[in-house]
Write a structure and sequence with these properties.
Helix content is 41%, strand content 13%. The protein has 286 residues and is α/β, with parallel strands linked by helices.
């Protein structure tokens, strides 16, 4: 292990000094250099290179489980423990930061039962959508993000980012989802009891499209856990890693994260490490 470290990271250092620091002999190191490398070592070097490439492609966000899934999709035979070991040796790890949680304001007029009851699964697209609001800080002020998630494939089907927290924020996100993903009557739309989801504008929109409203209990994040999970991922993988200088920069980077990375490239554990755009449920396989 120490000899491999000297091979990999010893460029620019004297062999004698490195051997002294690591507690090995120079003769032993030179003997190691003369020995032919084993097939396993060569395979590890090749796999290590592929791991670094996949890690960079993931925006340095993937840990060992997702990297393993990515490599297997590329036809590489590898296990999670081996990938984790090679990641440690290469000094790479998932570059995420802990997120924080935010809730919407209370109020409104609509009332509805909880039709989801913490069963965050859907057999078909357009069967159950969930939605919530969080906030994004920029140097120019706060922005509020409303997002709509399809529980079938965990894709963000609609979202809106505005400097004001009002009913229009949520209506814009839902209208975008309906424009891009037409649904049949009977769709369940689940949210918390924030006032933005219970106003007259939302009532008209739901009736117009034959959508059934579902509301979780007030102040209980577990009743909308799928959206909490998405926002936590967004914060840890993007928002908490950068400082948005302007609202325009925030819009650009959040668009890139949701539309380019999250929906089309990011592998989800709940989807058996498939992406939302490429998701095929096990039940649909012949």
């Amino acid at each position: 292990m120490k000899y491999r470290f000297m091979d990999r990271d010893g460029s620019g250092f004297e062999v004698a000094k490195m051997a002294e620091v690591l507690g090995v002999s120079r003769s032993g190191y030179y003997a190691h250099r003369r020995r032919p490398r084993s097939a396993r070592t060569l395979e590890d070097e090749k796999l290590g290179t592929l791991i670094r490439l996949a890690w960079r492609k993931s925006r340095e966000l993937y840990g060992a489980p997702r990297l393993t899934a990515e490599l297997r999709c590329q036809g590489q035979r590898c296990g999670k423990n081996r990938v984790a070991r090679l990641m440690r040796q290469a000094g790479i790890k998932s570059q995420t930061k802990k997120a924080f949680r935010v809730t919407t304001k209370s109020g409104g007029v609509l009332e509805a039962d909880d039709l989801v009851r913490r069963r965050f699964q859907a057999d078909r697209p357009g069967e159950i959508w969930v939605s919530d609001i969080t906030y994004i800080r920029t140097r120019e002020g706060w922005l509020y993000l409303a997002a709509v998630l399809d529980l079938h494939n965990r894709a963000v089907v609609g979202w809106s980012l505005e400097p004001r927290l009002g009913d229009e924020l949520v209506l814009a996100a839902v209208n975008q989802a309906l424009l891009k993903h037409p649904v049949k009557k009977g769709l369940v739309f689940h949210a918390d009891r924030g006032g933005q989801y219970r106003g007259h504008g939302m009532e008209y929109l739901l009736i117009r499209h034959g959508i059934r409203l579902s509301l979780g209990r007030r102040g209980d994040c577990y009743d909308n856990a799928a959206m909490e999970s998405f926002f936590s991922t967004l914060k840890s993988e993007l928002v908490n890693r950068v400082e948005f200088k302007t609202e325009l920069e925030a819009r650009r980077l959040i668009y890139d994260y949701i539309e380019v990375y999250y929906n089309r490239q990011r592998r989800h554990t709940t989807l058996n490490y498939q992406t939302p755009a490429g998701y095929v449920s096990v039940e649909t396989h012949p």
